[in-house]
UniProtKB/TrEMBL annotation, chain B:
Name assigned to this protein: Quinol oxidase subunit 2
Location relative to the cell: Cell membrane
Broad class of the protein's primary localization: membrane
Family as reported in the entry's similarity comment: Belongs to the cytochrome c oxidase subunit 2 family.
UniProtKB/TrEMBL annotation, chain C:
Entry annotated with the keyword Cell wall biogenesis/degradation: no
Protein name listed in UniProt: Quinol oxidase subunit 3
Main location group: membrane
Catalysed reactions, as listed in the record: 2 a quinol + O2 = 2 a quinone + 2 H2O
A Pfam family reported for this protein in Swiss-Prot or TrEMBL: COX3
Length: 651, 306, 198
């Protein structure tokens, strides 16, 4: 009897057939994976090559796969929401389910889709672009990934174990407090984001150190490729923004688990403090996502225009300015909180000011294409689609920044349209462009261009149909996060249009999977190391990239060293091949990920004994690391020469 | 000035056509504050459309002119670093636009945060609007009336809403009269509105507040001062007084229809108008009691703090 | 591994330099962490609900002892690093040992201080003020506790392996951490205790 009572806490407070079906599906998939690994005897391979790897390229690929999986999870949430709102008074979802779904949609897409996607590209590209062997702290890098992964898995089991969070991705208190959110859902929110947030912070420190200290000889800061610059600035923002989230989440956790009064409505608690902390992190977070996207666009536009990036230094300075301003605008997320005209005016101006450096970047991309020789490849199509669509997203941002008018936009579908209008053409398009662009470098074959173009058009048309109607329904008084509306409101037809657009986008995303499958079967493996005729250093090494990246350290002449070596006779690799020092693999990061998962899960359900054991386990792992003697290993000259020969001659 | 208005109206017309002919609520203002906001919105849509069109035209031109298929095979694009004057224009023009919009924005901030223009010399009608899961309570302290989920207001008179919440943060919004503002549990915010025309308007909570959020709406009826006075008298003749017990049952989570009472809950459950850090010991006891009212439905709540 | 003998031992390999820079960046993140805690504290300081105010619970004696002990420990670890640079392993270990003992004293007094708060009715749950106070102090105290373990591990490694580029690097980084905790404490002392008692 007691036994049953213990397990009652894991039951879902608000079940539905769909959730039970997902439980069965999850169980079957897990069994399938385990059985498959056992049948094909792949456990050893999985452990040696992936779970214990510290190689930045493999970690990048793991981030990439996780991000794609999460894209589909968040996308499933999105399509359910649009289906529910497609018609007035629909009964597909009830209020509680709808609330859970938009909450998880937001968290999954920002924290567990967009973040790993940019980390994937930072991991894959940055060391190659600066001519380094790996990141500064390879094992910490693995730990970052496993913490992200533990957080993501923890968050994703919420809907089958104990119930999903339902207070919105912003999780405003007091709604997110125990009084109004009784299930463990918000505990999942607090702990899962905390765990993956610690991972993000570590990546921030790791990448900053890597970029500052490990650049190849000759590469001054102002000769770094633009993606590396964008990654550097994004990581600086991570280092300064994520601790704020850490503190806010700790306070939210203690409010819920230990009955403290940070954000409650009694004993002096202050609900607005959460909103402030959340957005002091939250607004810079937006730029953490968009700056690397800008970096990818810069690389792609320049490659396919066959021209150097226009206004390199203004690109850099505009990013630096954006990163500073990003910390000075958080109040614009709640102009309607009653701070008064003066405060609103100040934040209105700082917010609009961001439009200036962003505008500079748009014009620089346009001028990069000027007098170029433009090839309409799939990555380039995304970049071209990005410019007008993101401009619309940007100018609606300026509209929202007008605080008096924001009293009318706030909390409406207009706002929803705006931020999707920046995130989808801005971040998601960039990720898909980057995926297509860098795919051959890491997998050795090209993705099919025809299918890629179909995907692009499905996504673009779908996007316009899905989100532009929201600008209108917002101005017509449709508040966001409403699970239904009556026919009399007249929101019906435009919402149906949105649903059609969302469905097109869903088809578009499925075609990506098909493209990978199709290209894997049919694409040529004989593509050389530079299939796009690109310009920066990551294309100067072999495809696939050997584990040590470059047999000899490259000598840098400009931000486009590789192009210089192809066209202007710059000698990239000088001297003899020498022995290379590489770090050893380690299972500890993976094990720590598991311990974090267990400890987090225990905290969520207030199971103190395993929680404390988990915390002790984490400290034991750290202590072991302190005492460990690990000097890495050396790859001999002979071995390097053999690898180089196999991959196509010494470079 | 006239030119600007023709432009604005023609653009409004365009937006209406796109939306299926019905005017969009926010762009169909019935009060001075909403009108100011609608004007700002139309102005910014106008300027922003120009920017978007310029970017699109440049992009289309470049794509057309410099596409690879149109150029000789041996064409090698030049290396261009940047041009001082081009960059000055690219920075300067956005700065001018942003400066102008900032100027408008700041001016509008002070307008929407004070008594509506043209109504300055009138005594405002003060109405306390408080939300609880998922209802709105409107207290008219001058008239000694309280309503639930509906609002009667006189036209051509400034109205000062005092907003607060018994529970999650909500946002009080009547799109046709003016933009929204938050209602929170430990402070009172003020929203200045006025109705120029008699009519029925939609009002709602715009800020997500849990399960019953979608239906958290109220009706607003604006009428002449004479009709309003008549209504006040009628309420005093017919409605029951609001008791503390009754009010506490009203606060329980759920939905209610429209209700009318004489007297207001402010008498026994005052609005949280004091700032917390100025609270003396005596006051804090009051606020402590007060917060117990707020949470009386949550028996399991941990009160270990008290 | 390439060792550059023109540099001090703790900077002598590339990995050592990376570690030190990485740690500085980590301290940047720590500054943000404590800045956020301070912001929360200053915002919630006056929101005492029905609980006690700062002036009612702060006591000068334990705070002065803590301050004195921690400042001294910061000085002794500086001496320890100086000894390390001179290659004097035993002196270095003695100074590190003293530092850790002083850290332990600090922690003991802080535990005593927390018990005092508990007895006068200022618990974690009492009010927004007490929660912010105890979280800020607790985060600092937690850092000190972690530092005690970390420092002990390093001491053991120096004892066993001698002053190598690795152990020197770890010791130096630990000293950065310890100085940082001292700086945070000076802020806590000035802006939480002194301001609260005035």
């Amino acid at each position: 009897m007691e036994f049953l009572e213990f397990f009652e806490r894991f039951a879902i407070p608000h079940p539905s057939p769909a959730i039970y079906a997902s439980m069965v599906a999850i169980a079957l998939t897990s069994i399938g994976i385990v059985a498959g690994l056992t049948y094909f005897k792949k456990w050893g391979y999985l452990w040696r090559e992936w779970l214990t790897t510290v190689d930045h390229k493999k970690i990048g690929i793991m981030y990439l796969v996780s991000a794609l999986l999460m894209l589909f999870r968040g996308g499933a949430d999105a399509i359910m929401m649009r289906a529910q709102l497609a018609t007035p008074d629909a009964k597909l979802l009830d209020a509680q389910h709808y609330n859970e779904i938009f909450t998880t949609h937001g968290v999954v897409m920002i924290i567990f889709m967009a973040m790993p996607f940019i980390f994937a590209f930072m991991n894959l590209i940055v060391p190659l672009q600066i001519g380094a062997r790996d990141v500064a702290f390879p094992r910490l890098n693995a730990l970052s990934f496993w913490l992200f992964f533990a957080g993501a898995m923890l968050f994703n089991i919420s809907f089958v174990v104990g119930g999903s969070p339902d207070a919105g991705w912003t999780s405003y208190f007091p709604l997110a407090g125990n009084d109004f959110s009784e299930s463990v859902g918000t505990n999942y929110y607090m702990l899962a984001i905390q765990i993956s947030g610690i991972g993000s912070l570590m990546t921030g420190i790791n990448m900053c150190t890597t970029i500052l200290k490990m650049r190849a000889p000759g590469m001054t800061l102002m000769k770094m490729p633009m993606f590396t610059w964008s990654a550097f600035i994004a990581n600086v923002i991570i280092v300064f923004a994520f601790p704020v989230l850490t503190v806010a989440l700790i306070m939210g956790t203690t409010d819920r688990l230990f009955a403290t009064n940070f954000f409650t409505t009694e004993s002096g608690g202050m609900d607005m403090l959460w909103a402030n902390f959340f957005w002091i992190w939250g607004h810079p977070e937006v730029y953490i996502l968009i700056l690397p996207a800008f970096g990818l666009y810069s690389e792609i536009i320049s490659t396919f225009s066959r021209r150097n990036l226009y206004g390199y230094s203004s690109m850099v300075w505009s990013m630096i300015l954006i990163s500073l301003l990003s910390f000075l605008v958080w109040t614009h997320h709640f102009f309607t909180m009653g701070q008064g005209a003066l405060t609103n005016s100040i934040f209105s101006i700082t917010t609009m000011a961001i439009a200036v450096p962003t505008g500079v970047k748009i014009f620089n991309w346009l001028f990069t294409m000027w007098k170029g020789k433009i090839r309409f490849t799939v990555p380039m199509l995304y970049s071209i689609g990005f410019i007008p669509l993101f401009t619309i997203g940007g100018v609606t941002g300026v509209m929202l920044a007008m605080s008096a008018a924001d009293y009318q936009y706030h909390n409406t579908m207009f706002l929803v349209a705006h931020f999707h209008n920046t995130i989808i053409p801005g971040v998601v398009f960039a990720m898909l462009a980057g995926l297509t662009y860098y795919w051959p470098k890491f997998f050795g074959f090209m993705l099919n261009e025809k299918i890629g173009k179909v995907t692009f058009w499905l996504l673009t048309v779908g996007f316009v149909l899905a989100f532009f109607p929201m600008y209108l329904t917002g101005l017509d008084g449709q508040a966001r996060r409403m699970y239904t509306y009556s026919e009399a409101t007249g929101f019906g037809p435009l919402n149906m249009l949105s649903f059609i657009g969302a469905a097109l986008m869903a088809i578009g995303f499925v075609t990506i999977v098909y493209n990978v499958y199709y290209s894997f079967k049919n694409s040529s493996r004989d593509i050389g190391s530079d299939p796009w005729d690109a310009r920066s250093l990551e294309w100067a090494t072999h495809t696939p990239v050997p584990e040590y990246n470059f047999a000899r350290t490259p000598q840098i002449s400009s931000s486009e060293t590789f192009w210089d070596s192809k066209k202007n006779g710059h000698v990239l690799f000088k001297g003899e091949i020498e022995e290379i020092h590489m770090p050893n693999n380690s299972g500890v990061p993976f094990i720590m990920g598991i311990i974090f998962f267990i400890a987090g899960f225990s905290f969520i359900f207030a199971l103190w004994v395993p929680a404390v054991i988990g915390l002790i386990g984490i400290f034991v792992c750290m202590a072991m690391r302190s005492f460990e003697k690990d000097h890495g290993r050396h790859i001999s000259v002979k071995e390097i020469k053999e690898t180089e020969e196999k991959l196509g001659g010494a470079k | 000035m006239r030119k600007k208005w023709t432009l604005l109206t023609s653009m409004m017309a365009l937006v209406f056509v796109l939306a299926g002919c019905e005017p969009l609520l926010v762009l169909d203002p019935k009060g001075p504050q909403a009108e100011r906001q609608a004007n700002d919105i139309m102005l910014s849509i106008g300027i922003m459309s120009v920017i978007v069109i310029v970017v699109m035209v440049i992009l289309a031109y470049i794509l057309f002119k410099y596409r690879a298929s149109k150029q000789p095979d041996d064409y090698e694009p030049p290396h261009i670093h940047g041009n001082k004057w081009v960059e000055i224009v690219c920075v300067g023009v956005p700065i001018l636009i942003v400066a102008y919009l900032s100027f408008v924005s700041v001016k509008s901030n002070y307008i929407v945060e004070s008594t509506p223009e043209g109504y300055e010399n009138q005594e405002p009608l003060v109405i306390y609007a408080s939300s609880s899961d998922w209802k709105w309570h409107f207290s008219y302290p001058e008239e000694g009336i309280e309503t639930v989920n509906y609002l009667y207001i006189p036209t051509d008179r400034p109205i000062e809403f005092k907003l607060y919440s018994y529970g999650p943060i909500t946002s009080f919004w009547i799109p046709q009269l003016g933009g929204q503002k938050y209602a929170m549990s430990d402070m009172v915010t003020t929203l200045h509105l006025a109705a120029d025309e008699a009519g029925e308007y939609m009002g709602r909570n715009a800020n997500f507040s849990g399960k019953g959020f979608a239906e958290n709406t109220f009706n607003v009826t604006a009428m002449s001062q004479a009709d309003y006075d008549e209504w006040v008298d009628e309420v005093h003749d017919t409605a029951k007084p609001l008791t503390e017990d009754e009010f506490e049952t009203l606060l329980e989570p759920g939905h209610l229809g429209q209700m009318t009472f004489t007297g207001t809950h402010l008498e026994f459950s005052p609005a949280p108008e004091h700032a917390h850090n100025e609270v003396s010991d005596e006051d804090s006891d009051e606020s402590h009691e007060h917060s117990n009212h707020e949470n009386h439905t949550e028996e399991e709540t941990d009160h270990s703090g008290h | 591994m390439h060792i550059d003998h023109s540099q001090p031992l703790e900077y002598s390999t590339q990995q050592n330099q990376l570690n030190i820079l990485g740690f500085w960046i980590f301290l940047g993140a720590e500054i943000m962490l404590f800045a956020t805690l301070f912001t929360a504290y200053f915002t919630l300081e006056g929101r005492t609900g029905s609980g006690p105010t700062p002036a009612e619970i702060f006591e000068i004696t334990p705070v002065l002892i803590e301050t004195f002990v921690l400042l001294t420990s910061s000085f002794t670890i500086g001496l320890g690093i100086h000894a390390m640079r001179l290659g004097r392993k035993n002196a270095m270990m003695t100074f590190f040992g003293i530092t850790l003992l002083l850290g332990l004293c600090f922690l003991g007094v802080e535990v005593f201080e927390f018990m005092h708060y508990y007895h006068v009715g200022a618990t974690y749950q009492t009010s927004a003020f007490t929660a912010a106070l105890l979280t800020t102090l607790g985060t600092h105290g937690g850092h000190v506790t972690l530092g005690l373990f970390w420092g002990t591990f390093i001491l053991l490694q120096v004892k066993k392996r001698g002053l190598t580029p690795e152990t020197a690097n770890k010791s130096f980084i630990f000293s950065l951490y310890w100085h940082f905790l001292d700086v945070v404490w000076i802020f806590i002392f000035s802006f939480i205790y002194l301001k609260g008692m005035m």
